[in-house]
Each structure stands twice: as C-alpha cells, then as structure tokens.
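Quick log. Single chain, no ligands specified.
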Amino acid sequence: PFDSVNTLAISKVLERNKLIKKAHCYHSPDSVLHIDIDQRHPILRVKSISQGDFYVDREGFIMPVQNIVPMQIPLATGNISKEKASNDLYVLAQYLNDNKFWRQNITQIYVKTNGDIELIPRVGTHTILLGTAENCEKKLNNVRKFYDKVLSRKGWNFYKVINVKFDNQVVGEKPNK
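-> predicted structure:
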C-alpha cells in the first residue's frame, strides 16, 4: 500500500551514497512519490600515490570515483593525503573553479615530494611553482600580470618555470640549453 512507503527510510538510504549531498523523499496528496536529490559537484579529481583516486566536491567533501561522467576539472597528482586534498588543494581548486581564466587554463595540479604545489597550464610548456596554497589568489594574480606583461612579448614557451612561491615575487626560470 502506498501509505506504508517509509519516505524517511528511503531518504536515509539514498544519503548513504557519497555522491548524494541531500535526499528528500515524500508523497503528495495526489498519491505521487517524490524524491528530490541534491548531488555533490566535484571541483577536483585526485590521483594520489598513497590514497588512490577520489574527487573533492564544492564543500571539500571526499567523493569516491564511481559512475561519474568525466568532467573538465583539474587533476591533482602526487602523494596527496585526503586531509591535504580537502584542505589546501580544496582552497586552490575552489579558487580555480571560481575564476574563469584559471578554470580554462589550469589542467593539472602536481604535489611534489616536498609538498610544493606545481600547476600545469593548458598553454605553453612552462609550469607554475605555487609553493603552498596559501595566498593562491594573490600569487595567481601576479602570474596573470606576468603573462600579460612578459609572456605576451617573450612567448609562452620562453620560461620553463614561473615561480611565485615567495611573497610578491615572480621569477621566470629559463630552460637549460
């Protein structure tokens, strides 16, 4: 019978799925069962040497990699703990996701063995050495100015590394010849 359907139990079962943020199940007066689902939205894919593959959503929640359609979001690689992913890398991924220029231009985040964060842009052969995710907005604004003032004249492949690890410094490292 329709009245015996336990909508609360259905909501709780659905919310056990790590891809679902919130589920609301109810029946209307016209005897229709409704299920409203708020799904989690990944902003970062992580392929960690020590922790395996997973996603980080808009709230920093760790999501499993299962039945998710491939998306245009940055891929983070290296030895990344789930704690680092849901804290430092989450802050960085959130900024990249919210900024149209960087959302379109950063394809990969690499965490080096010393913990430094390196960004791999879509255009050019250089990498961006960010250091930590702290002040990532300021650091990436400096990189953007460097792009506009220097790389627009020198070319996208003139530098091997653009280092913004230190406060208020942008250091371009040329490739070894």
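Helices lie at 7-15, 82-86, 88-98, 100-105, 136-154.
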